[in-house]
Write a structure and sequence with these properties.
27% of the residues lie in helices and 24% in strands. The protein has 2 domains: 217 residues, Alpha-Beta Barrel (TIM Barrel); 127 residues, Beta Barrel (Lyase, Ornithine Decarboxylase, Chain A, domain 1). Strand 17 and strand 18 form a beta hairpin. The protein is α/β, with parallel strands linked by helices and 386 residues long.
Length: 386
């Protein structure tokens, strides 16, 4: 099979892609395609690309560079460490920490021009004091808790907060946002109630003179399912990576998968009928079999729950995972595959020809969400951009 042109991540050192034991291929063209689909659905709203958890496992720095070059308006991260990583890599685009920050993170956040979500008056006062100490004006957003119950201010607390904010001269409010708790439900009543509560806070802000701020509530699924919640900015995460956000119709159906996970055959041997394979003897061969061992395991994010359930693709043939997935290795029955040899490429996630193991299929075998698969890929998994 002809190799695609690739660039390895810095953590792969001097190795070429052909020397990786386990690697994730990230398709840049598919990311661009998905961004175009998102922009079509957003109907002119700005785009904040969420890159938390290392861009859901796809590599935050590389994806930030790509998305900024494609003109996204803002980047979202989970914490200050992720934000600083992007700044140190030379990313100059606006960055919002969509979660919370603790007091010890404030000096670096202010110094590097990173936007923080505010949740309380005391947090605003502390951040204002730090910005004053640095003789800077920090850009901030206000998170409204409309029903998620995790972070953010209750809508009725927005009035005293915004009055107090006028007195904090080293803070500039640039946005209001909220987070839907479960837009996947077929019955949208609770999501619509959240939206109503957010509208209350938005109207309060407008009456107090904050009429030109960014407003965003829509993550990937709400973007496609609730056009009334788009406001002037949308906040896609999983849709960028082609992970279907629970919507089986419309534009979401046109998203392209971005990620493939691959390894190589490390060892092959023929074993007799009745041979136990792996820890705890959870599998015995039913006939004389050929067993291949691959250097990938749950430390790399290939979950133990995939044991005796999953399949892999080798030379276009589906082969079952047999025995328990261990920390560093998994075993596969390749008896029915043709001409399998040490060094052959093994597709754990992705496709070859008309055969494909999708993220939804893999997460179904593992009984987890697709995001847990991509976010769970360990640091031994090299990211290769194709």
């Amino acid at each position: 099979m002809r190799k695609k042109k690739t660039d390895s991540t810095p953590d792969s050192g001097l190795r070429t892609p052909d020397s990786h034991r386990v690697w994730a291929e990230v398709d840049r063209a598919a990311v661009k395609h998905n961004l175009r689909a998102i922009r079509k659905a957003a109907s002119g709203a700005r785009v904040l690309a969420v890159l938390k958890a290392n861009a859901y496992g796809h590599g935050a720095i590389e994806m930030a560079r790509l998305l900024v070059s494609e003109g996204v308006d803002c980047l979202g991260v989970g914490d200050s460490g992720e934000a600083l990583e992007l700044r140190l890599a030379g990313i100059k685009a606006p960055i919002l920490i969509v979660g919370g920050i603790v007091p010890g993170e404030m000096p670096a956040v202010v110094e590097r021009g990173i936007e923080a979500n505010l949740h309380t008056v005391s947090m605003a006062e502390d951040l204002n004091a730090e910005a004053a100490r640095q003789k800077r004006v920090a850009r901030v957003q206000l998170k409204i808790d409309t029903g998620m119950g995790r972070l953010g201010m209750q809508p009725f607390d927005a009035v005293p907060f915004l009055h107090r904010l006028r007195e904090l001269k080293n803070l500039k409010l640039v946005g209001l946002n909220t987070h839907f708790s479960y837009p996947y439900e077929q019955n949208p009543d609770f999501t619509l109630r959240q939206l109503e509560r957010f509208h209350v806070a938005v109207e309060v802000a407008r009456r107090l003179g904050y009429g030109d701020v960014l407003l965003h509530a829509s993550s990937s699924l709400a973007l496609f399912r609730h056009p009334e919640a788009r406001f002037n900015m949308v906040r896609p995460g999983v849709a960028l990576w082609g992970l279907a956000p629970g919507d089986d119709s419309g534009i979401a159906k046109k998203l392209k998968p971005v990620l493939s996970l691959k390894t190589r055959v490390l060892f092959i041997k023929d074993v007799p009928e009745g041979q136990p394979i792996g820890y705890n003897r959870t599998y015995y061969t039913s006939t004389q079999s050929r067993i291949a061992t691959m250097p990938v395991g749950y430390n790399d994010g290939y979950r133990r729950s995939l044991s005796n359930k999953a399949e892999v693709l080798i030379n276009g043939v589906r082969c079952p995972v047999v025995g328990l997935v261990s920390m560093d290795y998994l075993t596969v029955d390749v008896t029915m595959a043709r001409e399998v040899a040490v060094g052959d490429e093994v597709i754990l996630l992705g496709g070859e020809g008309d055969k494909r193991i999708s993220m939804e299929t893999l997460s179904g075998w593992a009984q987890c969400s697709p995001y847990e698969i991509s976010c769970g890929m360990g640091r031994r998994v090299a990211r290769v951009y194709v």
